[in-house]
């Protein structure tokens, strides 16, 4: 099969972005000092100034290529989904659905199951919310309280919380990583979920067993954890409708509307105030939506400059099988996540490349979407400079690296993902 070798010059914008982002973060001591949007904007400016050795395009022509890449239909749809997911999260928080999920888990948690129970609550909450950061913020005060009452290392319980948070970040139907993985590979969420859950289930089981043998106990009172089953209706609707295969846009819309109705009936906000709640939720996803468009435009320029073909050629030069192709995809998204500390951005960036690799070697798109999500989420939960560990460490008043070594689930995700790739699935087809 003839393949285009591409040009290294097409990778220069990506290299500049990674060097800037990693360099500023490491030298300044905080990766917040180089916002992703600014880094991508600089890389885009560089890409607009470059040309392939064999041609010379004007700035206007390069801008046209950028706009075409940013306006790709999959990306525009992804932006709409991001905005609706933000609206859903805003409404769910405003109507106290998040509190109900946490308190429901705590009320049914046996005292001798506190550690595996804490992990399961994190899984349930993150799957319902679709955000690892929100899960860490909601559960860390509970984890710190457990540590103080039992004498368990606070870094240990913090690692459990972060692990549970990454479970939902990887699998939730409203998680931005799931949205990015499914849209870039053009597969349905339910299909990706079925493949993905098989991929990580061994990691969940092993993690639960490891936590169970620790077996500390603490007295819990169900009376201290009030919840409303009615408040869970929006989450149930989103999960059930997604599983039956309904399009994600109406699913998100139904979730938002149901949350507004319940919130108004319970007096959490008025119908007029709900508009502000929706808007605040949308604003929380605003940066991610813009980043998705900029990355799409940047990838379009890199593709035109030959960078994508060059990267594909190098990644697949030793990938002579489906397994080799899948390992290449896992390595690519992991590298990007380590560099950017953002699993969604790493998926958006790696997605088009991964799709080309999948088509080249006949890899199922469902497997590709799962691999992208699993490896990016796993590494994001293990980076001491990523948001999840930084927030947990700040609340627990310990070092992020102390927590990192106790996030067993993320480590097990990587192991389980590699086993999943090496075993393969000969029955699965595109």
Automatic annotation (TrEMBL):
Q: Where in the cell is it found?
A: Cell membrane
Its domain of life?
Bacteria
Q: Keyword Zinc, does the record have it?
A: no
Tell me what topology the record assigns in the membrane: Multi-pass membrane protein
Listed transmembrane segments? 7-27, 33-50, 75-98, 118-140, 152-173, 193-212, 232-265, 289-312, 374-396, 408-424
Na+/H+ antiporter NhaC-like C-terminal domain segment(s): 27-212, 235-422
Q: Which family does it belong to?
A: Belongs to the NhaC Na(+)/H(+) (TC 2.A.35) antiporter family.
Protein name as catalogued: Na+/H+ antiporter NhaC family protein
Which species does this protein come from?
A: Catenibacterium faecis
